[in-house]
Amino acid sequence: MSIPFKKDPVEFNQSLLFPSNLFDLLPADHECYIYEDIFKQIDTSSIEKKYSVLGQNAYHPRLNISILIYAYSHGIFSSRQIKKRCHEDLGFMFISHLHCPDFRVWSDFRKEHYEYFKACFKQSVLLAMEAGMTSFGHVSLDGSKFKANTSRHKAMSYGRLQEREKALTEEIEALVKKAEQCDREEDAEHKDKTGYEIPEELKIKEKRLTKIKAAKEALEQREQALNPGKAIDDKKQISFADKEARIMGKKGDFQYAYNGQITVDKDHQIILGQHITQKANDKQEVKPALQEIKDTTGKLPDRMSLDNGYMSGGNLEALSKTDIDAYIATGKGEADSEALSDDSEKGIKKAQFTYHEEKDCFVCPAGHDLALKSSGSDGTRIYQAKSADCDGCAYRGRCCKSKDGSGRTITTDDKEPLRQAMFEKMKQEESQKIYKKRKTIVEPVFGQLKANLGFRGFSVRGIMRAGGEFSLICAAHNIKKIVHAIKQKVVSLKQGRLIPQAVY
Predict the structure, then answer these.
(1) Is the separation of the CB atoms in 151 and 245 below 8 Å?
(2) Which of 162, 213, 285, 365 has its CA 20 to 30 A from that of 455?
(3) Do 277 and 309 form a contact (C-beta atoms < 8 A)?
(4) For residue 197, what pLDDT is reported?
């Protein structure tokens, strides 16, 4: 049985007396016409099945997703603002086919169809590939923090949660006893049991206690998953509004956020893969990023550049299992071959030690060996220099900070050979040239998302829904790039197909 979706108003395709057609007021080359042609390529069959034949006719999901993508590509994220534009902006009116759903329609659509937005993002990548706007020759992965739909004022620490749970429990018990006493006294005097005012207060406190317990339980489950068997630090916090968001930030600016990861192709800054994570750093994000690219496009890039935040054993191992030619910065600005002058105040970094795989030891800049001291079942390995070597070393003040006279230690893991290989690779001048291109590939895209479009935080709550909205903004970015390429005559849209202009 076909689902009876709402039909377009007769005015949408009917000429009026003045003007002859409402959209004649738009310039002939207005971008909304290009967007409309692209939106016709979007497949919404997977969510059409979720609609029911019962009740009032629904707006077609293609109409909803088209309006959302058009709005996001123009920096409009508020449901109320989208509704306003559909009333006042001819471009929005054309994309919406003169429909103007209530703002709750888009608000609910974002919340309910977050899984589809990921499929929509995939379609945007495939359209860009069809248009010849990707080469997979050089891609760059990077992450940036996007504010969660909550604030630090809607959060509480574990210690405070325990205190409030105990206090509220005691207050509720006291109110119950007081209510029972009042009821007995009123029964004896008036034979009329009311107990109205105290039960109202009791109801409020019970509601607060339920909220406190739910947040406390969510925090305990989170910490147990992250640190099994370990006691929970009283300073650990959780948000009441979005329990899955995490405190992230730097330089004193901390807020609840998600870490948005994007992999961008060099040619036209098309986002090939994206995901969000609850982790504040990027040390485990290469593997999921590669999987996202593979799931979306069916292949992996030839070359990949990443900043120092991705310099971890796990990331290096994930890359080593592919044929990708990877370039990861091995230091935060300092050169691996940094000069060691006596008057320098900089400490000597781990990157300035050389690992010898055959001898299984590190060698410090002064030429002393750091032998293997211990190794753990998790792959952790600790290397240490002899105390005598460090005592007589000219670099001791900058290198060895031990207060008990012990030699300098280096902590690493079984991935150290991969690190050392990257250190050596990044010392080469050609590698530095290739890596420098990263700044022109991925960093401008975050600038376009945050500064140009103004997307700095999520409108929905929870990692699944926030992930859906991140897919939506990334899809909007890609389609905006495609529209720009068509306007610049780099790409042509012929009979529903995107074709590189070079073909003609």
Answers:
(1) no
(2) 285
(3) no
(4) 53
- Tokens, residue 437: 């291109």
Distances (CA, A) of 475 to 80, 462, 464: 21, 20, 17
Q: At what angle do helices 114-130 and 463-487 cross, to 10 degrees?
A: 30
CA separation for the pair 486, 156 (Å, rounded)? 50
Task: Report whether 405 contacts 384 (CB < 8 A).
Answer: no
> Left if phi > 0, otherwise alpha if psi is -120 to 50, otherwise beta: which for 6?
beta
> CA of 260: how far to CAs of 141, 165, 456, in Å?
11, 34, 11
CB 272 within 8 A of CB 139: yes
Residue 87 structure tokens: 């009333």
Mean pLDDT of residues grouped by 10 in the chain (504 residues)? 81 67 88 94 88 81 94 95 94 93 86 92 96 96 95 76 76 72 66 57 78 80 79 82 87 87 97 96 96 96 96 95 96 45 63 86 92 87 92 88 87 88 93 95 96 94 95 97 94 85 56
- Long-range pairs for 231-238: beta carbons < 8 A, 24 or more residues apart: 232/158, 233/158, 234/157, 234/158, 234/159, 234/162, 235/157, 235/158, 235/159, 236/157, 236/158, 237/155, 237/156, 237/157, 237/158, 238/155, 238/156, 238/158, 238/161
pTM here? 0.84
> Which stretch of DSSP H or E encloses residue 295?
helix 286-297
- Give phi and psi for 498, each to the nearest 5: -90, 125
Assigned token pair, 1: 């049985």
Omega before residue 19 within 30° of 0, cis: yes
